[in-house]
């Protein structure tokens, strides 16, 4: 699910070199886990792992936007947010497609792989939480990091429960249900991001259309 926005993550501390280094580290962790969960999800035949990868993608995008785009003008920021929302939407549809595919073939995901990768994902999110907590900047910022991490941990635990359910029932249903829920949440998040980004883009257009008074 979509986490803290880039602005709330890196509002005023964004310029500090130490905070930028932490942003680079959490960007690498989230980017790496996105790739790892996509590949593991395909190898294990688990749609839930691929759905969990979506959140790592969203978070990696936020940290990348904080690092590269936040200082740029409103139009660039709106454009970056739009690309992120559109990518999340496409990934969400792809996960739903994977669910339909696995249901049609009645495939059963490999539960041990789900358990191991789900645990690694949980640890990765906890490490990011600890790193970001050291840079909390006011109550609002702290709160957004908390909400963000709590949602990530809930998603990781859902994947672990799905692994347990697959193991216990010998069917793919726990995986399909968890993956569908996470994909729908991601699609809702993507729709909100696209709507906000479109509005920001339009207001940036209006601002740039105002003639400069000399
Ligand atoms: Zn997240």
TrEMBL record:
Could you tell me one molecular function GO term of this UniProt entry? zinc ion transmembrane transporter activity
**Matches recorded under InterPro entries:** Cation_efflux_TM, Cation_efflux_TMD_sf, CDF/SLC30A
- Domain Cation efflux protein transmembrane, first and last residues per copy: 23-199
Give me the segments passing through the membrane: 22-44, 56-74, 86-105, 111-132, 153-170, 176-194
What GO cellular-component annotations does this UniProt entry give? plasma membrane
Recorded superkingdom: Bacteria
**What is its membrane topology?**
Multi-pass membrane protein
Q: Which UniProt keywords are given for this protein, alphabetically ordered? A: Ion transport, Membrane, Transmembrane, Transmembrane helix, Transport, Zinc, Zinc transport
Main location group = membrane
Q: Where does the record say this protein resides?
A: Membrane
Q: Which PANTHER family match?
A: CATION EFFLUX PROTEIN/ ZINC TRANSPORTER (PTHR11562), RE54080P-RELATED (PTHR11562:SF17)
- Write down what this protein is called: Cation transporter
Q: Which organism is it from?
A: Paracoccus alkanivorans
Q: Print the organism lineage.
A: Bacteria, Pseudomonadati, Pseudomonadota, Alphaproteobacteria, Rhodobacterales
């Amino acid at each position: 699910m979509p986490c803290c926005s880039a602005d709330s993550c890196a509002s005023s501390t964004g310029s500090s070199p130490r905070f930028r280094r932490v942003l680079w580290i959490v960007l690498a962790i989230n980017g790496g886990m996105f790739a790892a969960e996509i590949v593991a999800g395909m190898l294990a035949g688990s749609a839930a792992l691929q759905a969990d990868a979506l959140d790592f993608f969203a978070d990696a995008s936020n940290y990348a936007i904080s690092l590269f785009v936040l200082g740029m003008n409103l139009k660039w920021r709106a454009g970056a947010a739009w690309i992120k929302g559109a990518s999340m939407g496409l990934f969400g549809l792809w996960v739903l497609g994977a669910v339909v595919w696995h249901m049609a073939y009645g495939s059963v995901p490999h539960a041990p792989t789900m358990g191991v990768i789900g645990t690694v994902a949980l640890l990765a999110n906890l490490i990011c939480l600890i790193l970001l907590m050291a840079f909390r900047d006011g109550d609002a910022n702290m709160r957004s990091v908390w909400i963000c991490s709590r949602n990530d941990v809930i998603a990781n635990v859902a994947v672990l429960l799905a692994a347990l359910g697959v193991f216990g029932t010998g069917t793919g249903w726990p995986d399909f249900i968890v993956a569908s829920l996470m994909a729908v949440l991601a699609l809702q998040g993507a729709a909100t991001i696209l709507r906000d980004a479109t509005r920001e883009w339009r207001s940036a257009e209006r601002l740039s259309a105002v003639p400069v008074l000399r």
